[in-house]
Amino acid sequence: MKILVSAKDGVLYPADKQSEKRVLQLMDGDIYDCHVNIEQVRSNPQNARYWAKLNELSDIIPEAMQAQYARAMLDQLSLEHISPQTLHEYIKLKTGVRSIAFDWLDHSAACAYYTQADEEIEKLQALALAMHQGGCNT
After folding, report:
1. CA 125/CA 77 separation, integer angstroms
2. Residues 6+ apart with CB under 8 A from 112
3. In the chain, what are the domain boundaries?
4. What share of the chain is helix, strand, coil (3-state, %, to 5)?
5. pTM of the predicted model as reported, rounded to 2 decimal places
6. DSSP letters for 80-132
7. How confident is the model at residue 116 (pLDDT cuts 50, 70, 90)?
8. For the segment 17-31, what is each residue's pLDDT rounded down to a tens digit?
9. Interatomic CA distance for residues 17 and 14, integer angstroms
C-alpha cells in the first residue's frame, strides 16, 4: 500500500486524503515495515502554474495571426491553430520530454522541464507580442 507522508517535527503525517484513508485502515498498535522514498512528490501547484502560463500565452496570440504564428513557431509541424495543448506539445518537442505525467517524471525531472518550459514560453510570448504590435488588428 502506498501512502504519501509529510514530516513535521520528526513526526510523519498522511499528506493527502487518500493516504489518510489508508492510514485509518491500519490496525492501532500494530507495527508496519515501510520504505520511505525521500524523492519529493510532484507538485500540483507547479503543474497548474504551467498550464496557466500556456493558456495565457495562447490567449495573447491574435486570432488573425494564428496561422503565421504557427509557421513561425513550428516550422517542422503543419498547424493552423494554436491552443494550450498545441503549445504543450511544442514545448515537449523542444525539451525532448515525452510526457509530463506524474508517473512519468519525478519531481526533480519535472522541475528541470518546467525551467526549460518557462524559458521557451518567454520566447514564445515575445514572438506573440511582437506579432501583435506589428499591426495585427483583432
Report:
1. 19
2. none
3. 1-38, 44-133
4. 55, 5, 40
5. 0.49
6. S---HHHHHHHHHHHHT-S---TTTS-HHHHHHHHHHHHHHHHHHHHHHHHHH
7. very high
8. 888 998 899 888 888
9. 8
